Here is the input.
Amino acid sequence: MSNDVYVNSVVKCPECKRFRNPDGPCGGCAAIAARAAEVDPRCKDCGTAVGDTATRCGPCGEQRRERERVERDQVRAQILDPAVRAVILAGVGGGASLPEVCEGLGITVQRVWSAAHKLPGWARALNDALMRGRPEHLPGGAPHGSPRGYKAGCRCPECRTAKREAGHWRR
Here is the structure.
């Protein structure tokens, strides 16, 4: 008990660093020991022996990684349909604004940016389309690559970067 550290009428166990009532025994050390005893050093899928820190053997782990990769690809495909992405790229690359294209498709601009965040390859394609379709002259004479360009409605990568670097993002 002399090794215990008191903090506001509770005791911090020196072994497991959990707080407990000063009058009772430490349940943390017992819980940690019980969990350690429950660990079975066998593969979850096939039952072959594995190391203390592994939960699957090499072949089963590889199969799981492949299965999860396929599942992630399926989820990514559902984020924004590839046909819809193609229409967005064509519209924005042709000079239409992103909100106009999204309104025509019945989706939100936020959904497009979310998809761009989750699909890096498509984000690059969207940035290229935004660069191709951006207006040469912005309203009010605002230059591209400036926060004023972003305020004028341009969403090209240069104007977005300038706005971000100027610290004008609001959340």
Summary: The longest helix spans residues 58-79. The CA atoms of residues 56 and 64 lie 9 Å apart. The chain has eight helices and three strands.
